Amino acid sequence: MAADQPQLTRGVPALAKNATKKTKKQAGGTPATVALTAAGTPFTLHAYDHDPSSPSYGEEAAEALGVSPDRVFKTLVADVDGVLTVAVVPVAGQLDLKALAAAVGGKRAAMADPAAAERTTGYVRGGISPLGQRKRLPTVVDASASAHGTVCVSAGRRGLEVELSPADLASLTSATLAPIARP
Predict the structure, then answer these.
(1) Under 8 Å CB-to-CB from 144, ≥6 apart: which residues?
(2) CA-CA to 142 of 20 to 30 Å: which in 35, 70, 71, 95?
(3) In sequence order, what are the beta bridge partners of 44?
């Protein structure tokens, strides 16, 4: 196992060098961590101080955690032929909307209205997790995730990432793995 891919534990928090202590509000967990714990899925929780002025939530997370941007994945919500669909792609790349549409058998895809994404998932922009969403949406994880022992995705709020295996991520979200990212 590579140095930047620690052994996963069941819900034990592993804090980054600039991480803050857990607050009382975090004690119950986010819907994402609750879903992971309920499923018995091994994961590591990483907290860091979020900078509201950061231009990219994902790149900020990768830098704060000291993890390659290829292993940190962002959660995007798109509208594919009128159906909200979740795309999980590396922060080092961009979502290919045509590839996403093709992966779910659709014709056209566009980024979803941010308010609709927040309302449907139950999370705020920059903290949308593919796990524990209010309404389960069709999900596609970029195939590049399979190249890593673990990946990081939002744990349901800004400044909190969850690290888990790509297989567990795909299983828990009933995701399709497909090449939906471009450099």
Answers:
(1) 70, 90, 93, 179, 181
(2) 35
(3) 12, 163
pTM of the shown model: 0.84
Residues forming beta bridges with residue 94, ordered by sequence position: 182
DSSP annotation string for 113-130: PHHHHHHHHSS-TT---S
Distance (Å, whole) CA 105 – CA 10: 35
pLDDT digits (tens, 9 = 90+) for 62-100: 999 999 999 999 999 999 999 999 999 999 999 999 999
Would you report the helix, strand and coil content of the chain in percent, each value rounded to 5?
25, 30, 45
**Which residues 6+ apart lie within 8 Å of 126 measured at CB?**
57, 154, 158
Separation CA 124–CA 139 (nearest Å):
18
Q: Is residue 16 over pLDDT 70? A: no
The total number of residues shown for the chain amounts to: 183
